[in-house]
Amino acid sequence: MFRTHVIVTTAQRCVVKKMVPSISAHRNVVCFHRALGGLRRISNYRPAPLLTASPVRALIDEKISIEGRFLPPHCPVTVRAQMHCEDGDLWESFAHYNTNADGTVNLTRDHSVGGSYLGCEPMGLFWSLQPAPGEREGLRLRKKNVESPYIVHVFLLEGHVSPGEGQSTELAALSTERSYTAPGVRRTEIRQNGVVGTLFLPPGPGPFPAMLDLWGMGGGLVEYRSALFASRGYASLSITYLGHKDLPGPPNQINVDESYFRAAFQLLKDHPQVCADRVGIIGLSFGVFLALRIAADKSVKPSCAICINGPIGNTLKSTNRGTGVNMNRGLESVQKLWTYDDDGNVSFKVISMPENLDPESKVKVEDIECPLMYILGEDDQNASVKENADLIEETMKAAGTSHLFTRLSYPGAGHLIEPPYAPNARISLWKVKPKKLFVQWGGNLALHAAAQEDSWRRMLGFMESHLR
Hints:
By secondary structure, the chain is an alpha/beta fold. The chain has 9 helices and 22 strands. The chain has helices at 13-16, 23-35, 124-127, 224-231, 258-270, 286-296, 327-333, 385-398, 445-467; strands spanning 50-54, 57-59, 65-69, 76-84, 90-98, 105-106, 114-115, 130-131, 150-158, 170-179, 186-192, 195-201, 208-214, 235-239, 274-284, 305-308, 339-340, 346-347, 372-377, 405-410, 427-431, 437-440. The strands form 5 sheets. The protein has an 8-stranded mixed β-sheet, with helices on both faces.
């Protein structure tokens, strides 16, 4: 179907003779046509199939346009993406298309008719990436080294094929780079005043508006959202409070109190390249509880706060260290509230119902004086986010501050609403001892991807309004 044919005859020698003006040129043309028997189409030569991406290098939140050209019209093709995460696991996606009358396929314009996603989804190849068959169970894609890009290889294949079907004819291929860090962004490790984190600064002298970045109980130091904020012109400090070698105490316990988070906010505020009066805070999951506490602290006074799928209070009983909780003992103490799906994957959704939170830990959101955006996924299987959002909204309304509250609610979105075009994990491995246990996050791939794209755009708009 895709072979190239070129007609070659001895009559073509007539056209390579040295031409002379007028009569000689006319005779050569006549000679050529007679030798070919008056054949009108000299050749059905077609260039080799070509696959292009524009741009080839882009930030993770930027769209790219992928197009295949020089293909036969109205023929089936498959576009496949593959990449290895930093742990070496293979992730892949694929989509079936039919070429247009002009022999092209354009992912920005055309509709997938099968595969990892359906319909016109310009970035579907990226947000639908999932572990390839045979890879480890329960993987979640999280960038560790933000100073290196993901390398995504894209292939154009003949016919409608799926992974595992054996050999297929590769027509064209390309490689793209997807980065969290723009050129010129500066990364600095922070070990100051007891704070453990990483500061990202945009290119240029500043001063810049800034965000304090808080993640959930997964622990460790997660940098990729902060790197992307800096790539969009905001200084950002991502801090860890659990499961890091430079923190005090056991790795499975939160051993810091409120003063730790106040110190982190003050450190960011005092930085010479940060606008001291334009510092916001963002939290995901348990980070929402922490972000709300900071927002309600009148001695801190952030300029704005963004909360993504988290509770108004602590889901676990505190130790005598303020916010300190032992993760293992704490979760086991409320094990009667764990729920499971048909495959035995655990959910902590019931634990975070407002009535099940530690009453003494609930944040007095009526004290919040800055604009607050709460983003929730309606298919969140890890936290009772609607009930928590309702309580926050009702409390702020009673306090006369409802004008400060913005709610974004996304049908089909799960717990892990992150920067756009990153793939979602509906479940992931939580622990391996005494036996393997997987935790539920929720989220329909396509609807979750739409939520990530829209919420990121609205978050940046919210930050633009309140930090610039």
